[in-house]
Amino acid sequence: MKKLLFLILLVGIAVAGIKYVEPVKDMARNYLPAQVLELIGETPKGILERGMDQIKDKTQELLNQ
């Protein structure tokens, strides 16, 4: 019973982190499957958003050289 309560608490903290902490939300939208994100009420990044993020990262990388 203690393990189940601990697991529920851990999942609750993870969901709260995904929903309310912006860097964690961005990471989750990039890497978690769409079904998991829909289950907790978030939308996954579309192909256009992912492409724009890659362009932004490459541009920053080139500017920092």
UniProtKB/TrEMBL annotation:
Protein name, entry field: Uncharacterized protein
Taxon lineage: Bacteria, Deltaproteobacteria, SAR324 cluster
